[in-house]
Every structure is written in C-alpha cells, then in structure tokens.
Amino acid sequence: MERKTVITAQGLTKSFGSGSGQVKAVDGISLAVPSGEMLLIMGPSGSGKTTLLTILGGLLHPDSGSVHIEDVDITRLPDKKLTELRRRKVGFIFQSFNLWESLTVSENVELSLNIAGVPGRRATDKAHAVLTELGLGARLGFAITGLSGGEKQRVSIARAVVNDPRLVLADEPTANLDSAHGYEVMMLLRNVARSGDRAVVVVSHDQRIREVADRVIWLEDGRVKDIGRLFRDPVCGMSVEAARAVSLEWNGETYHFCANGCRRDFEANPEQFINRRQAGEASVRPAMEGDKE
Amino acid sequence: MTVPVARRNLLSEKGRFAISVGGVAFAVLLILIVVALYRGWSQTGEVFEKLPGEIWVTQIGTSDPFHSTSLLTSGDVGLAASVEGVEAAVPVLSRQMLIPIGDGEESVRFMALALPGGLQLSPDVVAAYAPAPGDIVIEETLSRKTGLKEGDRLVVRDVDLRVGEVRPRGGDVLSQFAFVHYSDAERIFGVGDIVNYAMLIVSPGSSVDEVAAAVSAGNDGVRVYTSTAFAEAVRKEIDEAFLPVISILVIIGFMVGVAVVGLTTYTATIERAREFGVMKAVGASGGFLYRIVLTQSVILTASGFVVGLAAAILLARLAEQMVPEFVTDFRALDLAGVLVAAGLMSVIASLAPIRRINGIDPAMVFRA
User: Fold this and answer.
1) Is the residue at A292 inside a domain?
2) Where are the beta strands (DSSP E) in chain B?
3) Which residue in B236, B200, B233, B287 sits closest to B61, CA to CA?
4) pTM (2 decimals)?
5) Order of strands across the sheet with A72-73?
6) Do residue A93 and residue A176 come from a single domain?
7) By C-alpha distance, which of B316, B343, B345 is closest to B39?
8) A171 Cβ under 8 Å from any chain B Cβ
9) What pLDDT is recorded for position B196?
10) What is the pLDDT of residues A181-237, one digit of tens each?
11) Which pLDDT band, with edges at 50, 70 and 90, does A289 fall under?
C-alpha cells in the first residue's frame, strides 16, 4: 500500500536576533514524512530541533521555505486558520508533559475533544476509550499530580491522538523518563504512527531511543547532517554509526561496537552475543537497518 | 457540557477562592446595605399617603411637612371645605416636640386629626390615626427607642397620656410620629384656632387634581399638595442629602468588587499561562479561552453575590435590633440591579486576563 506524505518541509530557514548576534536556528531544512512513519530528529542542544518542530507544528513562521501538511501550505495560512488546522490535524507531546494539573486524567483528554468541538458524554467516552487503550483505564479519575512520569506522558499521548490528527509532533518525550519508560513511550509513539496511519515526528537528543524510529536525521547548527547507517552493538545493544564505531571482522561479517570494551568482550566469546541476538532480541525491539552487515 | 476548567482552576486554590469570594461578598454587601438603607429611608413621609386624605392644604411657602412651618386659620380650612368635590376638610395639628422619657427627652412628631363625624373610615385607620382622648399611638421604632409599651403613661405639658397602641414600624425614619386626640393636641401645643394643615377628603367620583387646583385657585394664601406630592416633598430632602453619598459608596463597592474579581482572575490566569499556551497550541480558539476566563469571573461574582446577599440581610436584621432607625428595604428590583452590576463586574474584571491570554505565545510551550 502506498503511503501518503503527511508533512513536507521545503527549504526552511529561521533566524533569531539581528546583526552580528543573529543566529540561524534552522538553515535550509527539507524533509518529508509519510503516514505510518516515525521520524526521529536528533542533535545536540541548540541545534535547532525544537525550532524546527515548532515550525512544523504551525506555531512559528519560518523566514523562508514552506511546510505542507497534506495539501495545505501552513506557512501561508492566517492565524485563525492555522489554529483550526492544529486543532484537527496536529497532536502535540511535550517534554514536561504540560498537562492541566487541576484536571483529572480523563478531563485532560476530554478537554482536547472539547476544544475540537466534541462536548459532553461523547468526549468522555472517547477519552476513556483512548486512555484505556494506552493502559490508563484504572487512572481515569486520578489527579495528574498522582501519576508517575511515564503515566503522565501516556496521558499526553492520549491527548495528542484523541482527535485523530494526521501528524503527531513530540518534543523530547523521553527527557523526563527513565530508560524503561522512555522506551515504552517511544514504542507507543511508533504504534501511534503505524496503527493510526499517522506521521510522527519526534525531536530528542536521547541516544537510547534512536533504534525505535523508522528514520533518524541528525541536526547540527540548524542543518541536517548525514549520519550514515546505524548498527547495533551486539554486546551492549547500543545503536552506533559506522563512521564513529569500533569495527571488527569475524566469521566473514563486520560488527560495530560503541567502544573497545565491547569489542574486547565480543572477541572473548563471539557466540554468546550472536546467539543472544538470534534468540529473540527482535521481539523486544524493532528490527533495525544494519543489525548485521 | 465541557470540562469545567474554570471551576477547577479556581478551586485548585481553595484558600484564595474563599478570600476572593469574601471580597466580592463584601462589595455586594456594601452596595446592598447602602441601597436598602436608602430605600428604607425613602419611605419617610409614607404616613401622608396612608392617611385618608388625598389633598393637603398648607400655608403658602411651605416646602414640606418636616422642615417648614405651616399655619392656617379656620377661615383657610373653611374656604377649602367649600370647594366642590371636597367631602371633608380635616384640620390637622402637627408639631415636632421633645417629650420627657425617664431622665431624658425624645423628639417626637405629634399629629392630631379633627375628623368630623359621619365619615366612613375603616376601623384600622381610626385606631391608628385617631385615638381616643388621653391615648397616644406610637410606632414600634419609638417604642424601642424609649421603652414605652402599651399601657405605659407619659405626661406632656401637663397632659396625661396612655400608650394606647404600638403600631408596627413604618418607614418614617427621620421622625417618629405619635398620634393623639385633637383635643389633647390643642392642650399640648395648640394656639387658638390656628391649625397646621387641612387634610381634604375628596368626594367619590371627583378628580383629585382638579379639586386641588380649585382649592389653590380659591385662596392665594395657601399651597396645595396631593398626598403623594406632600410625601415626595419629604423624600426630596432625603434624595438631595443622601443620594450623592450613596452613589459614591455604591461606586466604591463596585470598584472593590471589580478589583477583587479582576485580581483573582488575573492571578489564576497568570499562574496557568503555560496551560493556556498549551490550549492555544492544540488549537483552542480565542473564544474558548475567553469563556474560561469569563466563567472564572462569573463563578467568583455569583458566589460573592450569594454570600453578600445573605450577609447583607443578616447584617440588616442584626443592625436593626441594635439601632431602631436602621430601616432597610431590600427590593427585588434593587437585587436584580446589583446582580446586573455583579455581572458587569465579571465582564470588566475579565478584560485584563483576556488581554494577558492574547499575549501568550503558544510556542512557549516548547520551552522547557
């Protein structure tokens, strides 16, 4: 089945400040994300990730370039139309959750439906259904302050998807979570992309989650940098770039490691790591490009 | 039904909510008490509307019954009585006097009617305004101020009077009326055949205004009032003296209310600026956000109004127990007016927070 492009950005630029103090936060970025795909935008702090996400979400106007969500050029829309478009087509997930603390779990999600014009019982029922699907069925009436970080982020996801948007934008969704919950949230987001036939764009500098994404782009100084193919370190499981990795030829295959320590462990007993991977790591993580070359 | 964001927002800080409701309640109480007092005091002069005469004849130049002297001769009364349409011309003696009460004195407005025989008056009117010789009818306010009760005796200028009846309190706050028999009044403060007023009872079927005009035309030494105009002449004094003061107090109360509601709503909005930013980011329209702010204000003012109304009525009753002249009259129309004013408070108080919301950049939600 052909996947339709949900969001397309062409030649985006955005600068802040002026004169010698001017900073180019986004510098000629183009990208396209089809439905069903989760794109991960990575990069160091200050690389322009969040600015790019804000532009993609129609919350910030670029200096130049265009953003199309489906067939609509959002950079040309007036504020009122842009607000309507965000309401119908875009879901947001934030680093610090940004939930209404005076509302219950269910009400936080219902509110998104109310904003979209769905009132009363219909909103309540739909919110409950989505929250239950995300494993929060027992927390519907809970206060936000009584939830763990992982649960809060799941409420955020529910809020983002409850209006069935075509595009979900997530800003550092794992930043306030431990690795287990971070991984869980990323898997949920990938599921959001695939099962909901949506495009999901995640901005993060969390190296732990890159393997979950369908595609990763690296941002530095506002520009996309080619990071090459990703490989899995068979010892520690970390994703590594071939260009930066420590490599080893064994039994006719090339393996890539995050550091010499992992390579030494591998050399001491290669079968142990190869067998472990074959025994079913694939069931707990997605298959990755370059798992084995 | 949508999620009650405004209510949750306010109630998340219960202490602040209670203080704010108290502030609005105070403003509402101030406005209501002042207006109710004004209404209560504005009933002054109602005795002239309750007495059976429709027209009052006074000496030329008399402005009102309380602040102006009126002296008429028996000839003036006779002239008025002769006008067509006048069924009876009742001579009236009236004077503000000090009466001895225990070790002190109390100012009382004596009034006596020389009702002719043959008039068809209700027993209640007769009992209230035409007591038997030696009796005095006083009002509850005077009774409470002086301690005089039914059956008590008092001596005024050697005239021995017995309290025949204590009438329920009327609206005459400026002066407490005491009705005595005409013969007793003559002995206490009468001067020959001089009377103070002539109260005219108009024949059935005759026009009050036409009769009043005819009386006035027939005697250029008198000034003629309808009973309503005579009562209003008293109220005019109250309006001129009190209305400017009351207006200022009402404006102060209104401003206090606006300030309290405005400050609370503004604080509640500022505190949740980020959450409002999230709403903007996820597509909330301006109208949706304004409704939240306005609802916050309305909840505050409505709660304050209910508490303030209850407090005002309670306070009025308590004050009345302590100060007999604290006469209040809570009228439905005034309550509706204060409710409208409270609604106006809500709207005005919402302006600053709405302005603040307009200034929130939804992109702020991406800043950590």
Assistant:
1) no
2) 55-59, 86-101, 104-113, 135-139, 153-156, 159-167, 177-180, 197-202, 222-226
3) B233
4) 0.73
5) A23-34, A5-16, A64-69, A72-73
6) yes
7) B316
8) yes
9) 95
10) 888 888 889 988 988 789 999 998 887 777 788 888 889 889 988 666 667 788 877
11) very low
Provide φ and ψ at A32, rounded to 5°: -145, 140
Q: What's residue A292's pLDDT?
A: 40
Measured CA to CA, the distance from residue B322 to residue A89 in angstroms comes to: 68
Residue type, A83: T
Our CA-based measurement puts residue A58 at a distance from the nearest CA of chain B, in whole angstroms, of 9
* Domain spans in chain B, listed from the N-terminal domain onward: 5-43+237-366, 46-232
Query: Using CA of residue B211, residue B214, residue B219, residue B222, what is the dihedral sign?
Result: positive
The residue from A206, A225, A244 where one domain ends is A225
Q: Are residues A172 and A243 in the same domain?
A: no
In a domain, A242, yes or no: yes
* Residue span of the structural domain in which A253 resides: 231-283
Which residues of chain A make contact with B275, given a CB cutoff of 8 A?
98, 100-101
Quote the tokens at residue A158: 């529910």
| pLDDT at residue A278, rounded to an integer | 54
Q: Report yes or no on A150 lying in a domain.
A: no
What does the pLDDT average to over B30-54?
A: 87
Confirm whether A111 is domain-assigned: no
> Residue A165 — φ and ψ, nearest 5°?
-75, 160
A179 near B CB under 8 A: no
- A278 and A173 in a common domain: no
Structure confidence at residue A232 (pLDDT): 77
- Pick from B282, B288, B290 the residue to mutate for testing the A interface (most A CBs within 10 Å): B282
Q: Is residue A35 domain-shared with residue A88, that is, in the same domain? A: yes
Contact between B282 and A88 using a beta-carbon 8 Å cutoff: no
Residue % of chain B over a pLDDT of 90: 43
- Across chain A, what does the average pLDDT equal? 86
Residues A83, B8: C-beta atoms closer than 8 Å: no
**How many interface pairs between A and B have CB atoms less than 8 angstroms apart?**
86
Interface test with B, best of A100, A104, A144 (most B CBs within 10 A): A100
| B186/B99 Cα distance (integer angstroms) | 16
Distance between A233 CA and the closest CA of chain B, angstroms = 32
Contact B368 A96 (CB under 8 A): yes
Average pLDDT of the residues in B32-39: 88
Q: What is the pLDDT of residue A170?
A: 94
Give B149-173 pLDDT, tens digit per residue. Answer: 999 999 998 899 999 999 887 666 7
Q: Do A35 and A92 lie in a common domain?
A: yes
| Under 8 Å between Cβ of B139 and B170 | yes
* Chain B, nearest residue to A86 by Cα: B283
- CA A210 from centroid of its chain's CA atoms: 9
Question: Are residues A236 and A95 part of one domain?
Answer: no
- Whether residues A192 and A48 fall in one domain: yes
Per residue in A233-252, is it b (16+ CB within 10 Å) or e — as a string?
bbbebbbbbeeebbebeeee
Same-domain status, A205 and A60: yes
Question: What CATH code is carried by the domain that includes residue A248?
Answer: 2.30.170
Q: Is A123 on the interface with B (CB under 8 A)?
A: yes
Cross-strand bridge partners of residue B100? B105
Domain with residue A182: its CATH number is 3.40.50.300
In chain A, the number of structural domains is 2
Q: In whole angstroms, what is the distance from residue A106 CA to residue A125 CA?
A: 10
Q: What ipTM does this complex have?
A: 0.77
Cα–Cα distance, B142 to B161 (Å, whole number): 15
Question: Is residue A169 within 8 Å of A161, Cβ to Cβ?
Answer: no
